[in-house]
Amino acid sequence: MRVSTGVDGFDELVDGGLLRNRLYILSGPPGSGKTTFSSQFVTEGARAGEKCLYLSMHETEEELVHDMSAYDFGFEKAAHSGKLQFRNVFDSNAKRLLKGPGGNGFSSGVKNMTNRLVSFISSREIDRLVIDSTMILQYFYPDNHEAFVQFLTSLKRVGATTVLISEMTDPTSYADEHYLAHGVIFMHNYLESGGMRRGVQIVKMRGTSIDSNIHAIEFEDDGLHVRPEQQIQA
Q1: Owning domain of residue 91
Q2: DSSP 151-201
Q3: DSSP assignment, residue 40?
Q4: Which among 145, 163, 210 is positioned nearest to 55, based on CA atoms?
Q5: Domain count within the chain
Q6: Cα(158)–Cα(104) distance, rounded to whole angstroms?
Q7: How do the pLDDT tens digits run along the chain, 234 residues long?
Q8: Distance from first CA to last CA of the chain, Å, rounded?
Q9: Neighbours of 75 (CB within 10 A)
Q10: What's the CATH number where 35 sits?
Q11: Residue 65 in 3-state DSSP?
Q12: Domain-located, residue 99
């Protein structure tokens, strides 16, 4: 079963939507639309009556609501609907969820954090999950490559349709998250004489027939729009 991303034009590139309960990596440089894409994704879920969780280390809920209020796709309404929960990793509640009372040791720390997060998502029957970004694990458990792999593997089994934002800026350079995820979406920025031009590319999508060309995207009053008919030459 597929779920709509809520991003106009994007679902046409992936057979009508994302396969449910899978892990998707959303990569790209700053300003390419990753946060807006993810916000539309959870807003669409809340609108459909699904339970959503947005876990961030970059913004507070107030900041994100303020930023997304520039668009009229309904993020603020979703945030106040009771269907969308927000956690900032620097809040005490989120720190207890991710780190717990034990220290920072790898052997117990990562396993406990993963178990707590999976338990939290399962107990609250979360349908859609956004994690912004992969820097979260690096913050709590730095210099642990095995920890990152363990975390990603657990996310694939969490029972929610998950969008994990990655700071990767080079679509030709692959990291663990790209190999382990069910799908990889890359957002592009191109600085041209007329200004900034943006595009989206489906790099990988298991179980889905994809068009791997770069397609134009635009920011409009009601959010991010993908133009499937407009290809961009890199």
Answers
A1: 2-222
A2: HHHHHTTSSSEEEEEE----TTS--HHHHHSSEEEEEEEEEETTEEEEEEE
A3: H
A4: 163
A5: 1
A6: 23
A7: 899 999 999 999 999 999 999 999 999 988 899 999 999 999 999 999 999 999 887 788 899 999 999 999 999 999 999 999 998 877 776 666 666 555 444 445 566 777 778 888 888 899 999 998 777 666 665 666 676 777 778 878 888 999 999 876 665 555 656 677 889 999 998 877 667 789 999 988 998 888 889 999 999 999 999 999 999 876
A8: 33
A9: 24
A10: 3.40.50.300
A11: helix
A12: yes
Q: Write out the two tokens for 234.
A: 């890199």
Would you give the DSSP letter of residue 105? -
Structure tokens at 199: 């595009």
Domain presence at residue 200 = yes
- Whether 234 is in a domain gets the answer no
Token output for 139: 């913050």
Distance of CA 103 to the CA centre of its chain: 28
> Which tokens sit at 114?
């993963």
What's the CA gap between 217 and 213, in Å, rounded? Answer: 13
Residue 232 lies in a domain: no
Per DSSP, what are the bridge partners of residue 232?
214
E strands, the chain, are 2-3, 18-19, 23-27, 52-56, 84-88, 128-132, 161-166, 183-192, 195-205, 214-220, 223-232
- Buried-exposed string 128-157: b where 16+ CB fall within 10 A, e elsewhere: bbbbbbbebbeebbeebeebbebbbebbee
